[in-house]
Amino acid sequence: IKAMIGSASSHVFRASDIDSRVFRASDVDSRVFSGSDIDSRVFSASDIDSRVFSASDIDSRVFSGSDVDSRVISAIDINSRVFSTTDIDSRVFSASDIDSRFISASDIDSRVFSASDIDSHDFSASDMDSRVISASDKFACYQRE
User: Fold this and answer.
1) What are the strands, taking DSSP E only, across 71-139?
2) 114: closest CA among 131, 101, 130?
3) Taking the CA of residue 1 as centre, how many other CA atoms within 13 Å lie in the half-sphere pointing to its CB?
4) Mind listing the pLDDT tens digit for each residue in 41-94?
5) Could you give the CA distance from residue 116 to residue 36 in angstroms, rounded to a whole number?
6) I need a surface site. Which of 32, 71, 94, 109 has the fewest CB within 10 A?
7) 94, 104 in Cβ contact below 8 A?
């Protein structure tokens, strides 16, 4: 395995050759960037504020990143069709695409809002007081409990 290591002003760069396909570099601000090549298809980087960004390529189709405020943003691509995000207030927003036809979100007050698309024809929401509001367009009915 061929390896190249260089250091200048606490900049460290390492690269392994075509056999291992791993490339890593850390800079003076302790930012770390790493990537593995076409075989593993994983690319990740963390910066000085502990933000972490990672992505796996076309085989796994997973892209995720968390920032300094512990916000987590993730997405799974066309194979799994799942897209989800969590924000700083613990609000969770998730959506699955055309295959599952399901979109849901819960907010900071534990209100849960969910909707499934044209296949299931069901839309439901519960509010902070555990009231449940649901509607099904298939039966053209509205219900509140």
Assistant:
1) 72-76, 82-86, 92-96, 102-106, 112-116, 122-126, 132-136
2) 101
3) 12
4) 444 444 444 444 444 443 444 444 444 444 444 444 433 444 444 444 444 445
5) 38
6) 109
7) yes
Alpha helices by DSSP H, the chain: none
**Cα–Cα distance for residue pair 114/123, rounded to 1 Å:** 6
Dist. CA 115–CA 11, nearest whole Å: 50
Structure tokens at 48: 């000085």
> Quick one: DSSP state of residue 79?
T
- Identify whether the C-beta of residue 59 lies closer than 8 Å to the C-beta of residue 50: no
